[in-house]
């Protein structure tokens, strides 16, 4: 049986998701992203997984309360224990025909065992040209993250407790 590397959530945005401007709160969208990402990662790894990086969340347009929301998550790269997952968030009015992309990001999960130690995940191999391009995209983002981490490193140190 072929392992599933994509997952989709679909639901209605609710009044409890509202921000002060009357739209869906960005924090609610980030929670949904983490949930669909976790579902994709843990399904692929067949184990518990933890979020280790969320990068470049891009909010294109607001989601309205009462919209139908769809989140698509897919593995785009695997390392030894890590899974890079591209997530796109779409929404539409109930009466509309088509969904419109509202948010995009890449989130990285690591599979962990019962002791919290990282563990090997099944290798994902891109099959289509689109999947190969997404894998290259993941590698480019990994290199950019390394540069960002180098820049951030002096600010990550706890200077007050040294």
Share of helical residues: 25-40%
The count of strands amounts to 5
Report on the biggest sheet. Answer: 5 strands, antiparallel
Percentage of β-strand residues: 25-35%
The DSSP helix count reads 2
Task: Describe what this molecule looks like in 3D.
- This protein is of the alpha+beta class and 162 residues long.
- It has two helices and five strands.
- β4 and β5 (100-111) form a beta hairpin.
- The radius of gyration is 17 Å and the shape is globular.
Describe, in short, the structure shown.
This protein is an alpha+beta fold and 162 residues long. The protein has 2 helices and 5 strands.
Features:
alpha+beta, globular
Secondary structure layout:
Layout: E1 6-12, H1 26-45, E2 49-59, E3 68-78, E4 82-92, E5 100-111, H2 129-156
Antiparallel strand pairs: 1-3, 2-5, 3-4, 4-5
